[in-house]
Amino acid sequence: MTSADARDAGDAEAFPTVQLDLPVPTNVRVRTAEFVKSSVEISQCPKEGPPEFAVIGRSNVGKSSLINMLTGRKALAQVSKEPGKTQCINHFIINDSWYLVDMPGYGYAKRSKDQRREFDAFTKAYFKQRGTLAMVLLLVDGSIPPQPADLDYAAWLASAGVPFSIVFTKADKKKKGGPRALSNVAAFKRALLEARGFPLVPPSVVTSAATGDGKSELLAFVASLRGMWEAAKKRR
Ligand SMILES: Nc1nc2c(ncn2[C@@H]2O[C@H](COP(=O)(O)OP(=O)(O)OP(=O)(O)O)[C@@H](O)[C@H]2O)c(=O)[nH]1
Ligand SMILES: [Mg+2]
Q1: How many independent structural domains does the chain possess?
Q2: Residue ranges with strand state E in the chain
Q3: Which residues are within 5 Å of ligand 2 (an ion), measured at CB?
């Protein structure tokens, strides 16, 4: 363990974190993953049914890459060095029983203001209206210091009552900000608590689409949430 890792581990324990009472995960493994459809309007999205896990985050943060990493498919979701690649809500069905949903990123400077507003309104409406949305995975680049746009998005999700967890991406990349800077992951959590007034830090996983780090942890987390979803459905 490097000293930075040790500091991360120490900090991780120090943050008050939302504790979910999750069932033991079953059906963790991805056996099949298929593209279902792209939608530019909520009315075009597949009929509500299976639980959905939607991936959101700044343009270029690695949303599509994460979906490919989780499903073990190189090009299921389209990845690009150019930001703004994903322009629709894309549903992928996993094991014929749950959805991974790829979303257009926010904060892409080259889009016009109107276009940005349109994408933003569309994804936010989806988060508020979709009855089968189990969890939003908010992706945050772990290789750079906390960005206001990501903190703003987390604050919006919380204020709108949308359940979300944080997936830190690009853990393989060298951290920017100098050796004495707080680790980016810890700094982001601290900013949520201190600058944005969160009482607790949402659940989080550190990942790399390049190395596969965090893959089994995130799949197990999602499987537990599906277990919780199924149990809640039986009670309804
Ligand atoms: N080193 C490294 N690069 C990554 C990782 N994840 C994504 N990338 C790179 O980051 C760039 C953007 O990845 P995408 O998956 O297309 O990002 P996105 O969030 O879907 O972007 P938009 O669809 O434009 O919103 C690509 O060049 C990826 O190869 C990672 O974990 N590590
Ligand atoms: Mg994308």
Answers
A1: 1
A2: 33-39, 52-57, 89-94, 98-102, 133-141, 164-169, 204-206
A3: 63-64, 85-86
Query: Which residue, 53, 31, 49, 15, is CA-closest to 224?
Result: 53
Ligand 1: centre distance to CA 81 (Å) = 7
* pLDDT tens column, 118-160: 778 889 999 999 999 999 999 999 999 999 999 999 999 999 9
Residue whose Cα lies nearest atom 9 of ligand 1: it is 62
The range of the structural domain enclosing residue 46 comes to 33-223
Ligand 1 contact, 59 CB (< 6 A):
yes
- Give a yes or no: residue 26 inside a domain: no
Residue 6 placed within a domain: no
Minimum-distance ligand 1 atom for the alpha carbon of 211: 31
90 in ligand 1 pocket by Cβ < 6 Å? no
Q: What's 114's domain CATH number?
A: 3.40.50.300
- Give the model confidence (pLDDT) of 79-124 as tens digits: 888 777 777 899 999 999 999 999 988 887 666 777 777 778 889 9
Read off the tokens for 48: 């509500």
Domain presence at residue 25: no
9 assigned to some structural domain: no
